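This section describes the prediction task in plain terms. A model, or a person checking by hand, is given the sequence of a single protein chain and must write out its three-dimensional structure as a string of tokens. No templates, partner chains or ligands are provided. The sample shown here is typical of the held-out split.
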Amino acid sequence: MKKLVVLTGAGISAESGLKTFRDSDGLWEGYDVYEVATPRGFAKNPELVLKFYNDRRKDVANAQPNTAHIGLAELEKHFDVHIITQNIDDLHERAGSTQVTHLHGEIFKMRSVKNVSKAYPITGDINVADLAPDGSQLRPFIVWFEEAVPMIEVAADIASSADIFAVIGTSLQVYPAAGLVDFAPTSIPKYIIDKKIPYTSSLSNLTTIEKGAGEGVKELTKLLLKGLK
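The expected answer:
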């Protein structure tokens, strides 16, 4: 089986009703992202930040995978599919994808403020004074702006071994995630699906599909399956 690596971003979850700051000039559900998605914001007002992610957790729990998520999961019948996602939701997993790497963390996990790597499951709320086993405050298992992205090297290795590389629903403006396209081998076919195709000057063998995620994945599937014949 050929290895299909797919980098997904906000645009794929938006079709399940999950809003992100990408759509609203640096605001996320009415909040300044630097207030709720940076270590500085958490230090300044932990109660606000915890409430923000408690609300996001409820939003994700109520959301359902859409046709794009399901279409990518179904491609596992024909390809060795690896999803690298910038999204913190679990919609890829619920749709049936079995190999998902989360670059920016996961909303249904939490960690202590001291230990970046040890995660604990969470489905309810995290509150101020909720402590991890190491005695420190619990926080969402989310990679905030101004923090390192621990999974980026793993993702780069996955991208560098791709036979086919696709980008769905991301502006390719958030680094280091956006740089993953440069790790894909130059010679392989590449696809970008987005309502507004992001600027890419360096990609060769590129096919653009200027559609939303759901319709775009349908078209991608047709192209990929046609290539197998």
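For orientation: The chain has one domain: 3-216.
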